[in-house]
Amino acid sequence: MKEAIKGWLSSVIERCNDFGKQIGLDYYCFQSVIPENDADVLIIGINPGGSGAFRFKQPDNTLSQGVNLYSVKNPHPDNLKMVGKLSRVFTSDYLKDALESATIMNLYYFNTKDVEMLDKSLNNDVKRFCQAKTREAMDILNPRKIIFLCTQGSELSSVGVTNIHGIGNFMKAGIWKEKEVIALPNPGYYAAYSYSNGFEMGKKLEDYLLKYITVR
């Protein structure tokens, strides 16, 4: 597993250095520590925020921030706005612990301040590369449960999710390799992250996580 991730990271760096120079944007993949074992919960966001200028990566760069940027138990000072929204969903001790220990990555690896800028900045070659590498990472990590922070059908299907359907409260569910996955809206969608709707999303999320705990 560790060697598989190391090889995956090297292949991402090799190509994304070229892409980064072309589009002028920095990149990284994980918003938690680099995983060394199969993931229990894998959370996949749309892409890193911000619009940092491109920085050349060496093969020993980890492409990770080194900490869990989504933690609501230990909020990171650089990500308080998003954590504030997630805290309206991850309200129970169980959900907070699941988020704390989750492996968190992005579908697209390049920093943009929002989805609109993402669509303007990333050409089809960049998007297709990131989609393919994210599918590879999902295979390597072999997660028990997958939570997307994106509900757009085309984005979910780009990494192999099928049978995508709404389940209420702005959420969707689908199937990835015979495993049910669940999708929450992008935290940039303010209406979905009201206190009342966030609480309802949290209840559905907890039901999903508890129902699909399996023994390896």
Q: Strand tally, please? A: 6
Strand-pairing-aware structural class: alpha/beta
Please give the count of helices: 7
Order of helices and strands: HEHHEHHEHEEEH
What spatial order of strands do you see in the largest sheet?
A: 2-1-3-6-5-4
Q: Averaged pLDDT, please?
A: 90
Task: Give a structural overview.
By secondary structure, the chain is of the alpha/beta class. It contains 7 helices and 6 strands. α1 packs antiparallel against α5. The mean pLDDT is 90.
Put the structure in a nutshell.
Helix content is 40%, strand content 14%. With 216 residues, the protein is α/β, with parallel strands linked by helices.
Write the layout of secondary structure elements.
Elements: H1 2-23, E1 41-45, H2 80-86, H3 93-101, E2 103-106, H4 115-121, H5 124-141, E3 145-148, H6 153-158, E4 162-168, E5 171-176, E6 179-183, H7 195-211
Parallel strand pairs: 1-2, 1-3, 3-6
Antiparallel strand pairs: 4-5, 5-6
Helix pairs in contact: 1-5
Key structural traits:
216 residues
